[in-house]
Amino acid sequence: PTPRGRRNICGPRGHPAHVVEMDVRFHDLIYIMADHQMLTDALQPMLRKIMKFRRESMDILSRAERSVREHRGLYEAIASGERDKAESLMTYHVENARQSILDACQE
C-alpha cells in the first residue's frame, strides 16, 4: 500500500491508468447511447477539466472497484431496459464520484 490508503490495482488491465481509460470510454458510450448532443456538449468540457482529480480518485483501490461495480450495474439496467433503475444508479454513481473527487482534492 502507498500513503493515505492509496494502492495500485494489480496487473496491467487493473492498473489505475487503465481503469481511468475504461472509465472515460464507458462514459463516452453512455453519451453516444443517450444521443443527446446538448448533454454531451455540457459534460465533456467539465469532465476534461476534472480529469486530474478523476485519475487521483481512481488511484484509490476502493473507489476504482466501486466505480467498476457501479458501471456494471448501470450497464445491466440500461441493457435490460430498466429506465428508472438506470436513472437511480446513475445518480448514485455521480454522487459517489463527486464525493471521491472532493476527497481527492482535500488530500
Write up what this structure looks like.
The chain has 107 residues and is mainly α. Helix content is 78%, strand content 0%. Helix 4 runs antiparallel to helix 5. The radius of gyration is 14 Å and the shape is globular.
What's the N-to-C terminus distance? 16 Å
Residue stretches low in confidence (pLDDT < 50, at least 5 long) are: 1-12
Helix coverage percent of residues?
over 70%
The overall pLDDT average reads 78
DSSP summary: helix tally: 5
Helix and strand element order: HHHHH
Layout of secondary structure:
Elements (H helix, E strand, L loop, with lengths): L15 H19 L2 H13 L1 H8 L2 H19 L3 H24 L1
Characterize this entry briefly.
The chain has 5 helices and no strands. It has 107 residues and is mostly helical.
Task: Describe the structure using short key phrases.
mainly alpha
